Amino acid sequence: MEKGYCDNQEVQSLTDFTIKDIPRGDNVVLDITLHRIVAGTETLDLTEVGTQVWFTAKLDKLYPDSNALFQKTVGSGITIVGSNSLLVTLAPGDTENLSRDVERLFYDLQIKEGLTGQVSTPINDELYFRADVTRTRV
Hints:
Elements: E1 19-23, E2 28-33, E3 37-38, E4 41-42, E5 52-58, E6 70-74, E7 77-82, E8 85-90, H1 92-95, E9 104-112, E10 119-130
Parallel strand pairs: 1-10, 6-7
Antiparallel strand pairs: 2-8, 3-4, 5-6, 5-9, 7-8, 9-10
């Protein structure tokens, strides 16, 4: 999925960040590319020393992070693969125990840049799940 954000008016709109049809209890890898354009130049660099990234999923946006169903960080579910690209890996245990009536989680991706300490949330949306037909786990 290729998405973008900016600190100025150069980029006027963002695309939909809703992720649909994630099978519960499966391994899922989200391939995310972000862009921040300032004065015609890409300024986002996730590889900067000290940069932190969080991918957090909750039943309710108002819950504290301690009540998140899962939270991924760099080295623990998030892999930086380029200056503006990352992979978020959802493990089976993240979603396999969701009750049948839970079809949606709220999530965001938050970045704290290493050099400036600037915090931004380029993605803030919803994850939608579907149950597998096969219930057997080996």
